[in-house]
Amino acid sequence: MTRPDPSHSAWRKSTHSDAEQATCVEVAQQDHRIAVRDSMDPDGPRLSLSGPAWRAFLSGIKSRA
């Protein structure tokens, strides 16, 4: 199995983010997974989550908001 090339992904971040905020994450869909990276270090490490793991991640974040 080959890994998707992250340089060809459409990375997105929250509309609440701006250029002055250093604590942003970006997400991109890569095949059937969701990739998450630090917007200040786009070539750094990434998380790669399955659909169910991504939904659980979001649910956990929302429950703490």
From TrEMBL:
Any Pfam family: DUF397
Q: Which domain of life is it from?
A: Bacteria
Q: Can you name this protein? A: DUF397 domain-containing protein
Q: Where is this region: Disordered?
A: 1-22
**Species name for this entry?**
Actinomadura barringtoniae
Residues in DUF397 domain copies: 10-62
